[in-house]
Specification:
The complex is a heterodimer of chains A (112) and B (113). Chain A is an all-beta fold. Chain A is built from no helices and twelve strands. Chain A is globular and about 45 Å long. Chain A starts with a strand and ends with a strand. Classes of the chains: A mainly beta (112), B mainly beta (113).
Chain lengths: 112, 113
C-alpha cells in the first residue's frame, strides 16, 4: 500500500549547519509529494511540494527534489536557523485521491 | 493563521465518555479532512467530507463518526472513549480540485483519563 518512510529523529544541529532529512515513498500510483512543518503547539503548514518526477519544491531556503529512480524526496537546507526547530513530516498523495499519507515525522533541534 | 478553526483546543474526559470536536474550514473550501496524531500511530487520515457527503474513509474506528453540515463546518464524534484515543485531532480543508493544498487547523488535544 501507500507509505512514507522518514529518518528517525531527533536531528540536532548547530545554527548555520547543513540539513538533510531523508524521505522515501512507495512507488504505487503517481504520487504528489509534500513536506509539512509543525511548530510547537501549532498545526501543520505546507513547506513545499512536488507533483512529478524531477520537480524541485522550494520554500524559505528548504528544497526537495522528486526522485523517481530512488523513490526519494529528501529535505535539505544549506544553513539552518534556531527558528527552524520543529517537526518535519514527509507526505504523499496519490493522484485521484486526496488523503495525505504521512511519515512518522522528524524532530529538528537547532542550537545557537 | 491557516483560516481553519478548531474547538475546543483541549479536552479532558474519562473513559467511556463521548465527545464532539468541531471544525470550521477556510471560507469557500468544500472539503474537510480529519486526521489523528498519536504517539504510537503517528499522523493518520480518518475521514474526508466534501460538500456534506462522505468522500473517503481511512483508519477510523466504528466508535468514531463525523458529519459535515450545510454551512460546511464539520464535527467529529468520538464515543466509548478509551485511553488509547488520547491524541491530537487535526482538521484540514481544501478547495475543489484534486491538487488543492490542504490547510490544517491548530488541532484539538484530547486526553482520556
Amino acid at each position: 500500500g501507500d507509505s512514507v518512510t522518514q529518518m528517525e529523529g531527533p536531528v540536532t544541529l548547530s545554527e548555520e549547519a547543513f540539513l538533510t532529512i531523508n524521505c522515501t515513498y512507495t512507488a504505487t500510483g503517481y504520487p504528489s509529494l509534500f513536506w509539512y512543518v509543525q511548530y510547537p503547539g501549532e498545526g501543520l503548514q505546507l513547506l513545499l511540494k512536488a507533483t512529478k518526477a524531477d520537480d524541485k519544491g522550494s520554500n524559505k531556503g528548504f528544497e526537495a527534489t522528486y526522485r523517481k529512480e530512488t523513490t526519494s524526496f529528501h529535505l535539505e537546507k544549506g544553513s539552518v536557523q534556531v527558528s527552524d526547530s520543529a517537526v518535519y513530516f514527509c507526505a504523499r498523495r496519490t493522484t485521484g485521491f486526496q488523503k495525505l499519507v504521512f511519515g512518522t515525522g522528524t524532530r529538528l533541534l537547532v542550537s545557537p | 493563521d491557516s483560516g481553519v478553526t478548531q474547538t475546543p483546543k483541549h479536552l479532558i474526559t474519562a473513559t467511556g465518555q463521548r465527545v464532539t470536536l468541531r471544525c470550521s474550514p477556510r471560507s469557500g473550501d468544500l472539503s474537510v479532512y480529519w486526521y489523528q496524531q498519536s504517539l504510537d500511530q503517528g499522523l493518520q487520515f480518518l475521514i474526508q467530507y466534501y460538500n456534506g457527503e462522505e468522500r473517503a474513509k481511512g483508519n477510523i474506528l466504528e466508535r468514531f463518526s463525523a458529519q459535515q453540515f450545510p454551512d460546511l463546518h464539520s464535527e467529529l464524534n468520538l464515543s466509548s472513549l478509551e485511553l488509547g484515543d488520547s491524541a491530537l485531532y487535526f482538521c484540514a480543508s481544501s478547495g475543489t480540485g484534486s491538487n488543492n493544498e490542504q490547510f490544517f487547523g491548530p488541532g484539538t488535544r484530547l486526553t482520556v483519563l
